[in-house]
Recover the amino acids of this structure.
């Protein structure tokens, strides 16, 4: 299978490298397109793929096409490729505001929404997936198995898309920030050095990940570490007092931004559809 990636920024570039490193796609079957060609060429050099000069070249050759641009750029890309696509091709959105149904408004082929996570770079961690119309059960299973080479694709539930994306896709950034704050506080209030604190936190996170893989729940981890009248219990009490409710504003803020993005995407796609239909 030949794979194309339109947009080689942070997520598009990560996805291209991950697909090659996992063996999901052979480097000679990977095609990249970026408006700034130098960026596409850099990812091509890192993956062994090829950076093409035009969207037409990519569309004509690829079976599976990922669009990895900003939400406000999606409708323009779809307009440009709509007349080039064949029914048997598959186009994938990797951003939460642009659904498979949105893509289907403008494109004559089958569509998928796939939201990756930076954890997929390690050929691990979850991703979110939703299939548009036109896939039978075997085709859904086959494409899910392909994605499973570098992630664990979990079904998107429409009403919880943003929350799920916050946890799976944004979660590594949020968690890293919290751990960074923990390291900074340790350095400021004790004699530990930053480099030492980072090493301890890093090894703790890696080990905790292994325990989670064994089936431990977060509650069980707390229970295992926290002994009666112990230091951990004192620390957990502080966290309970200081952190309870702190994440509610985070989800409120991300959902507000998501709603604005959805509104913008809806307007852009409606306008693009009118243009493609000759009414724009």
């Amino acid at each position: 299978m030949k794979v194309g990636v339109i947009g080689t920024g942070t997520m598009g570039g990560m996805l291209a490298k991950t697909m090659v490193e996992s063996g999901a796609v052979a480097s000679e079957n990977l095609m990249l397109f970026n408006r700034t060609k130098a960026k596409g060429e850099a990812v091509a050099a890192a993956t062994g793929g090829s950076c093409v000069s035009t969207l037409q070249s990519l569309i004509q050759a690829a079976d599976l096409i990922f669009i990895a641009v900003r939400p406000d750029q999606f409708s323009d890309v779809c307009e440009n490729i709509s007349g080039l696509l064949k029914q048997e091709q598959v186009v994938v959105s990797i951003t939460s505001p642009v659904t498979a149904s949105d893509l289907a408004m403008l494109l004559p082929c089958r569509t998928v929404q796939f939201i990756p996570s930076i954890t997929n770079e390690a050929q691990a961690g979850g991703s979110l997936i939703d299939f548009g119309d036109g896939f039978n059960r075997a085709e859904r299973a086959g494409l899910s198995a392909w994605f499973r080479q570098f992630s664990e694709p979990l079904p998107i539930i429409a009403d919880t898309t943003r929350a799920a994306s916050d946890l799976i896709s944004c979660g590594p950034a949020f968690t890293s920030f919290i751990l960074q704050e923990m390291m900074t506080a340790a350095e400021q209030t004790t004699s530990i050095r930053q480099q030492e604190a980072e090493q301890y936190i890093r090894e703790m996170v890696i080990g905790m990940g292994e325990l989670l893989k064994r089936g431990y729940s977060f509650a069980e981890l707390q229970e295992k570490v926290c002994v009666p009248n112990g230091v951990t219990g004192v620390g957990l009490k502080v966290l309970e007092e200081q952190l309870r409710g702190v994440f509610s504003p985070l989800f409120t803020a991300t959902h507000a931004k998501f709603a604005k993005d959805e509104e913008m995407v809806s307007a852009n796609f409606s306008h693009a559809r009118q243009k493609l239909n000759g009414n724009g």
The mean pLDDT is 96. The chain has twelve helices and eight strands. Residues 248-276 form the longest helix (29 residues).
